[in-house]
Specification:
The chain has helices at residues 2-9, 18-22, 38-50, 61-72; strands at residues 30-32, 57-59. It is mostly helical. It has one domain (15-86). The radius of gyration is 14 Å and the shape is globular. The chain starts with a helix and ends in a 14-residue tail after the last helix.
Length: 86
């Protein structure tokens, strides 16, 4: 995974378990969910609610795609090849 390798090379914490990030609590401002898996988003929401974390927000994949598209001045797609806007 090129993104993980790049992050590690730049000393950015990486994990294969999304809950590791959620458990950092108020130290996390935004979790960008690009999994495309509805159960992941639901588990994140449930955990944030159960821990009374009203600080951390979950960014939807399509917002991330929009931001990447704007930064590259072209429409990018995800690994899910789903684009709901044009």
């Amino acid at each position: 995974m090129p993104g993980m390798a790049l992050a590690r090379a730049r000393n950015v914490k990486t994990t294969n378990d999304f809950m590791d990030i959620a458990m950092l609590g108020l130290n996390v401002d935004i979790i960008i969910d690009v999994t495309g898996v509805p159960v992941v988003r639901e588990k994140l929401r449930e955990y944030l609610q159960a821990t009374a974390n009203g600080h951390t927000i979950i960014m939807h994949e399509m917002i991330a795609v929009l931001m990447m598209s704007l930064s590259q001045n072209k429409l990018v797609t995800t690994k899910h090849n789903q684009v709901d806007y044009a």
